[in-house]
């Protein structure tokens, strides 16, 4: 073989190597994650996708569908029939497959209606894709639908419970055929639907809704400041910043066991911090996405930065908190009647005592003004005044940070100081007003249900207005 021919062969091989490498490097990182999911053929369950660093594009979006939809939210379903992408705001479903190492998206519905309905809870039951609830600009849906022969069909429910999926306010227990729903935040509110803050259970075998009880304040704090990471056999696994006195580390890693009405946290606080860092610590300036799921005692974390991490999680790694998810609703007629009579007796007694109290303390009515009552510190009072002076008494997360002087601090410091001040204000408000209602609460944004803002109740403010003068 001549030297010239040998050189040509070497150049051709080098050129082929460069072309192959460039082709691999140009592969979409999101598609890399989907290929990893397809390779894990044994996994069938819930998948959770989170966009980091202001990621604005979906894993997949068809060219023929307008981008007026919220196309930065991803919904993935994996069952025995394969991997599916459900487009947020629409009824479209696409099956993901590979051929010759290329990804293909085949449409699996025949929807012709293009009305936008957001916030639906999409899940697979008996390997059939279902859709529960949702909302548009005018209505809240309570419908339960399932995909049957490329068309959506409706299942009848015993009650109309409007449901909006906000991330971790809905829990799906596939093993026990159950969905648990917490009416915790906007847009499921009392004025619109007549439903107070409650925990509901939907039995998927009978399609029956049942009210379980009223969520505890610590539980509401946990789901307000955390995001769902995976579904474990015993409940929903969430991760967020430490916001309650029961938090055991820099970050709260909680497990909600709705079936037994229990809350657990990881014993090892360093493990919570490790999981947080793997999910949220942005090592690169560009936006990225993370897909998480749980299988065979292992939490798997896929990143669009071409990373795959696995963490072993066992039930023995968790310890139970001394607080339930909800206070159970008392459905016994006998107990209800006894409570009714007790309530009447207490009301009469309090009325008599209240009469003599008012006669004796007219100058102090209607609010206590004793020296031992708590007072708002200067920064708390300033934050309350900002709420009262803002449109609709609402402040964004950034606006609260600005008032508290943490705009240039780390996210950890911002989250902890915000939650600390809001909790302190609410605790003092409850002591002064004698109620168990929060003065300041969180609300989900209409245009991005993953984000929150803070809202002050002006009617409740009247009860402490005299204290701030």
What does this structure look like?
- With 469 residues, this protein is an alpha+beta fold.
- The chain contains eleven helices and 26 strands.
- Residues 16-26, 185-193, 242-249, 331-338 and 352-370 have low confidence and may be disordered.
- The protein has a five-stranded antiparallel sheet, with helices on one face. It has a five-stranded antiparallel sheet with strand order 11-12-13-14-23. A five-stranded antiparallel sheet has the order 15-16-17-18-22, with helices on both faces.
- The protein has helices at 3-25, 29-39, 190-193, 217-224, 269-280, 333-360, 378-389, 397-404, 411-433, 458-461, 465-468; strands spanning 45-46, 48-52, 74-79, 82-87, 93-99, 102-107, 121-125, 128-132, 144-148, 151-155, 170-173, 178-182, 199-203, 208-215, 226-232, 235-241, 251-257, 262-266, 288-295, 298-303, 307-312, 318-320, 326-328, 394-396, 440-444, 452-456.
- A hairpin with a 3-residue loop joins β20 and β21 (307-312).
